[in-house]
Amino acid sequence: MRQQAAVAAKVFIQRDYTNGTVCQFQTKFPSELETRLDKQQFEETVRTLNNLYAEAEKLGSQSYIEGCLACLTAYTVFLCMETHYEKVLKKITKYIQEQNDKIYAPRGLLLTDPIERGLRVIEVTIFEDRSLTR
Amino acid sequence: MKKCEYQQIDPRALPTPTPTPTPTPPHHRGDDDGGGGGKSDELKRPRRKWEVFPGKNRFYCGGRIIVARQSGVLPLTLGLILVTSGLFFMFDCPFLVKHLTSCIPVVGGVLFVFVVITLLQTSFTDPGILPRATPDEAADIEKQIDNTGNASYRPPPRTKEVLINQQVVKLKYCFTCKMFRPPRTSHCSLCDNCVERFDHHCPWVGNCVGKRNYRFFYTFIVSLSFLTAFIFGCVTTHLALRAQGGKGLVFALQESPGSAVELVICFFSVWSILGLSGFHTYLVASNLTTNEDIKGSWSGKSGEDVTNPYSHKNIFINCCYVLCGPLPPSLIDRRGFLPADESAQTSGADIEVPTVATKSEINVCTQGTKGLLESASLPPLLSTSCPQGKPQTAHTCPDNNSPAVNSDPSPELSMSCGARRAASPQGDGSPSHHTKTRWKKSKRAALHVPNPAFDVPVSPTSPDAASFAPSQ
């Protein structure tokens, strides 16, 4: 599906480092989106993403078992196994796609998966309303 | 140097990612603007991201192999390990199996395999390189920064303060990568990349040690300590057994000359490697990086009451977290394809050829903003080749100097460095900058599904589910 709309602006949701190096994004609602999107909706999306990233980096029994097993095998197990982190990243990609289809695309917005921006930002592309085609 | 100043990105002139393909030069040329020639190539053949990777790296085998511009001491490290272990298995093991136990070569073999595998993993794994900011992002940050009213000709170092677990942490703006570095991230001047949880740049291993390969590095030095100590012990036993009955050490050495070589290598290296392992065990237990330890970030030197905000306050948890915690995948996607109309996604030009970069410095600088925005290849060129890059590096020097600390001394050559390390693990503030850059290779690249061509955000749907960066 080729998007014919022109990009009006891009908003970048930056990382929130108050909890350390864990991947979290700021939930502050950007003013540029005020006309297009509900504040609650936006915060819900970012909060869910933050929870998913927290789940990926969680220090749980699963990650420890994975880590210890990897250590015992001189980390060669990483060559054949998908880590928990990667599995959650796939979940996140799916979630973002869903959100785009259901909520953002109808409003002329597009969320870019943060992994494509090196987990630096959530890029929200704002398209011009008039030329939106599907 | 003053002639070429940091160039402001003009957000009004940013190219929007509309369906017009913006040509980026496939090979770096003397003329920065010369991008037209590559256009037809681009339209025909989808390019991979490694071809436009802006760091100081070279790529072979279609992006599967990533090396630094100059080869380094890694072959020496590997060679010494192989030679010492080879001599051990050839000269000492037969004698010791006959006179003692056959477990010796088994234990030696396991340790040797561990050492080699972890060494190769440390060298060939992406340490946690952060991809550079896209021009749009950079413009957004610049705009925000300059809104605070900074109008001086030479902008001061830009910092942002955040509160992490009740500690004030300063985030520095990286002029090369055009982003505020996350906490614990540092820009390595040797590799010209920002690396997450930067520990140091290790010349012996030929790579930076960062978030993604620290555990491999730690396992490497610990298993190397065991291997070195084990070989040293076995060789000593071997020679002692041979010298029994009044025959003397000289006789024993004559009978087994290989053992003499091993003895020398192991004797001089075991202290430094043991010291290094001890030092890194301390770092792991307190969840510190070499960089932070050397700079004294959390030791309260400034007189304030500072504690490490990243520590879990429990040695066991710290160890588990650093060594067995979740391993994030690589954020740079070497084998992924560039979208056909890619302009702003990845920082454009390949900077393999330093001479050409020098030639074009003046071009780039005088073109300024306009030149920067005309093609996506300019941003990294501007920041890396331009003399302004040097003051930028100077800004970030306190970070960069410590990364180059020589940390993993291999046998024999390591005495001076290793002794320093063993003697004063915390006090070694003199970074031994090895100008030789190292190479790292990712053997995982071939094993994972490369990122299929994803659409730029122009398309209404975000890139499909399969298109996340492959783990490296």
Automatic annotation (TrEMBL), chain A:
It comes from Scophthalmus maximus. It is a lipid-anchor. PANTHER family: GOLGI AUTOANTIGEN, GOLGIN SUBFAMILY A, 7 (PTHR13254), GOLGIN SUBFAMILY A MEMBER 7 (PTHR13254:SF1). This is Golgin subfamily A member 7. Keywords: Golgi apparatus, Lipoprotein, Membrane, Palmitate. Belongs to the ERF4 family. GO terms for biological process: Golgi to plasma membrane protein transport; protein targeting to membrane. Its main location: Golgi.
